[in-house]
Write a structure and sequence with these properties.
Layout: E1 2-8, H1 16-24, H2 39-50, E2 54-58, E3 61-66, E4 71-76, E5 79-85, H3 90-111, E6 114-117, E7 122-123, H4 131-148
Antiparallel strand pairs: 1-5, 1-6, 2-3, 3-4, 4-5, 6-7
C-alpha cells in the first residue's frame, strides 16, 4: 500500500476525476516501449533533491528509486507517477511530503503534466495542497495499521 501522485493532462474546465477516468480509459492503449522524453532531466532533478538513487530502464517501465525513503518515480508506458510506502509518521512523514512536492515540481517542469494527489484530492502544486495535509494521511494510515497489528515489513 502506497501514497500515490499521478500526472495528468487536464483540459480547461475538466475535473480531476474526469482526467483520472480518461487516464484509466487508456489502459487498452498499445504498450509504449520508447524512452520517456526528458527522462535524463527527471533523473538529474530527482538526484539533486534526494541524492543517491537507483535507475531502472526496463521498457515499458522506467523507474527511479530512493532506497532510504522508498520513494519511486516511474513512467510506465508513458504514464508518470510517484509512489512511497506508508512507512513514515510525524516529522518523517512531513519531510517525505515535502519531497513529494519537490519531486512533483521536477516531473511537471520536465514533462508538462499536472501532479494530482488522490489521497487529499488536490493538485500537488496548488496552494491547497500542503505537506502537512499529506503527512496527516500518513499518520492516519499508520494509526490504522497499528490498530490492525500491521508493522513495517
Amino acid at each position: 500500500m502506497s501514497y500515490d501522485i499521478v500526472f495528468l493532462r487536464r483540459e480547461p474546465g475538466q475535473s480531476w476525476e474526469d482526467a483520472i477516468n480518461m487516464l484509466e480509459g487508456q489502459d487498452d492503449a498499445p504498450t509504449n516501449l520508447a524512452r520517456p522524453p526528458d527522462w535524463d532531466q527527471v533523473v538529474a532533478g530527482v538526484r539533486t533533491l534526494l541524492g543517491e538513487v537507483s535507475v531502472l530502464a526496463s521498457p515499458p517501465a522506467w523507474e527511479i528509486y530512493h532506497e532510504p525513503t522508498g520513494i519511486q518515480v516511474s513512467c510506465f508506458s508513458g504514464e508518470w507517477s510517484i509512489t512511497v510506502p506508508y512507512w513514515s509518521v510525524g516529522h518523517a512523514a512531513s519531510k517525505i511530503a515535502g519531497d513529494l512536492r519537490g519531486l512533483s515540481a521536477i516531473v511537471h517542469a520536465s514533462i508538462g503534466l499536472d501532479p494530482y494527489d488522490p489521497q487529499v484530492g488536490d493538485a500537488v502544486l496548488s496552494d491547497l495542497w500542503t505537506p502537512e495535509r499529506a503527512a496527516l494521511v500518513f499518520d492516519q494510515v499508520a494509526e490504522s495499521f497499528k490498530k490492525q497489528g500491521i508493522t513495517r515489513g
